[in-house]
Design brief:
200 residues; alpha/beta; TIM Barrel; eight-stranded parallel beta barrel; two-stranded antiparallel sheet; 29% helix; 22% strand; binds ligand LARABZUK; aromatic amino acid biosynthesis; EC 5.3.1.24
Length: 200
C-alpha cells in the first residue's frame, strides 16, 4: 500500500512522515490553508531521503507557473489537481518529474489517460477532509491510483476495503485544525494504511 502524506509545512512533520514510512510527501503550492512558498518547500524537500517522493501540489496554475515553482522547490513530482487538460501534462513532461493527476471520481479513472504516471481519485473538494462514496470507484480505476478524500487513521482500512486502491493520500485526517499537522496522527495513519488490505 503506497502512502502519501499531503500538505506538510513543518520540518518535524516531514520527519514524522518519513520515519513512519510514508512513500510520498506533498507540499501545497496553490491556494489553500496549507499553502507554502516554493522556497519553504525546497527547505523541507531537502531533508527528505531519495526513496520518498516529494510532490508539489497545484490546482489551476499555468504550465509555466507550475514549471517555475516546481524547479524552485526542487521536488521530484508535480500533482495537478482539477481540470487541467492533457496539454498541461505534456507541457511538463520534459521536466523529468513524476506527473500526478488528481481529480474527483467523475474524471477519467484510467491512470495514464492524460499522460500522468500516478492518479489520485479524490473528493469533489480537495483538502476538505470530506469523506465520499469510496466504493463507487471500485473496479473502475486502472493502474497506479491513490484514494483520497476524508481518510483518517480510523477509517482508512474501511476505505481501502471499499475501493481497493493501489495507494492512499491524506491531509485533513492527520491534522488537528486545517493546515495544522499532528505527528502522532501521521504515524497512526501510515501504520493503519500499511495494515489495510492490499489492492487486488
Ligand atoms: O490540501 C489542500 O488544501 C488542497 C488544496 C487545493 C488542491 C489540492 C489540495 N490537496 C491535495 C491533496 O492531495 C489532499 O491530500 C487530498 O485532497 C485529500 O485531502 P483530505 O480530504 O483533506 O485528506
Amino acid at each position: 500500500m503506497y502512502v502519501k502524506i499531503c500538505g506538510l509545512r513543518e520540518p518535524g512533520h516531514v520527519t514524522a512522515a518519513v520515519e513512519a514510512g510514508a512513500d510520498a510527501v506533498g507540499f501545497v503550492l496553490t491556494r489553500s490553508p496549507r499553502r507554502i512558498t516554493p522556497a519553504l518547500a525546497r527547505e523541507l524537500a531537502a531533508a527528505v531521503p531519495p526513496h520518498v517522493l516529494t510532490v508539489a501540489v497545484f490546482a489551476g496554475e499555468t504550465p509555466d507557473e507550475m514549471r517555475a515553482a516546481a524547479l524552485e522547490a526542487g521536488v521530484r513530482a508535480v500533482q495537478l489537481h482539477g481540470d487541467h487538460p492533457r496539454e498541461d501534462f505534456a507541457a511538463l513532461r520534459d521536466l523529468g518529474l513524476t506527473l500526478v493527476r488528481a481529480g474527483s471520481a467523475s474524471a477519467d479513472p484510467r491512470c495514464g489517460a492524460f499522460g500522468e504516471d500516478l492518479l489520485i481519485v479524490d473528493a469533489p473538494r480537495p483538502g476538505s477532509g470530506e469523506p465520499w462514496d469510496w466504493a463507487a470507484v471500485r473496479g473502475r480505476t486502472t493502474g497506479q491510483w491513490m484514494l483520497a478524500g476524508g481518510l483518517d487513521p480510523a477509517n482508512v482500512a474501511e476505505a481501502v476495503d471499499a475501493a481497493r486502491p493501489w495507494g492512499v493520500d491524506v491531509s485533513s485526517g492527520v491534522e488537528t485544525a486545517p493546515g495544522v499537522k499532528d505527528a502522532g496522527l501521521i504515524r497512526e495513519f501510515v501504520a493503519a494504511a500499511r495494515a489495510a488490505a492490499p489492492a487486488r
